[in-house]
């Protein structure tokens, strides 16, 4: 897919199937106890009222504020030269360079240290998402389309000490015969599982995202925060699952807007 000139002017996922979380967090819960992907055939759909977020959780507030700003330094000319062509025509699944994942479709990047936090390679992605290594590589190199599947996982970053993770996934509502389904409606399908939560509209990475923030005491995997947006016929979902003492701010701090 060739990005428009407008996108070239700006470099600045929920679907976590039980198998994802069992592989990422090492949790051995039974499927019915795990946080599974909602079904588009679910007859009960919550339609939360549209509202601008009034955040009371200081950690989420700080994380959102940090995610609203881009890097203060210019692009390294040498790196810019490396990406001058490939970033222009970046694949919808995103691309990796060293310890950075670039998502041109949603306009953000994830930077890890490669030690405490690292990206899954193709083999690990395939194992976690119940696909094949060839499929993952074909997806990353643009030979497979993110529009071909109902759900596509394009990036997983994990903390080797705590199992905390960041997962970027896409939902294609058209594959469920619901092409007009929105990110906010998607997240709203899950709120009846929890107490005192709602889907809010927040500013995240310089864009408007639907946000669902689930406290750690209501999940088997730790605090789970999802940001979802509608883009080019897809629902793009960025899911943070924080285990142990890993603060949300730390994980969100690894993301920043991407500007062309």
Q: What is the strand and helix layout of this fold?
A:
Elements: H1 5-8, H2 18-25, H3 58-67, H4 77-83, E1 95-97, E2 100-103, E3 108-111, E4 117-119, H5 122-129, H6 133-140, E5 151-159, E6 165-171, H7 183-188, E7 200-204, E8 207-214, E9 223-231, E10 234-242, H8 248-252, E11 255-257
Antiparallel strand pairs: 1-2, 2-3, 3-11, 4-5, 5-6, 6-10, 7-8, 8-9, 9-10
Description:
By secondary structure, the protein is an alpha+beta fold. It is built from 8 helices and 11 strands. A 7-stranded antiparallel sheet has the order 4-5-6-10-9-8-7. It has a 4-stranded antiparallel sheet with strand order 1-2-3-11, with no helix packed on it. Helix 5 crosses helix 6. The protein is globular, with a radius of gyration of 17 Å.
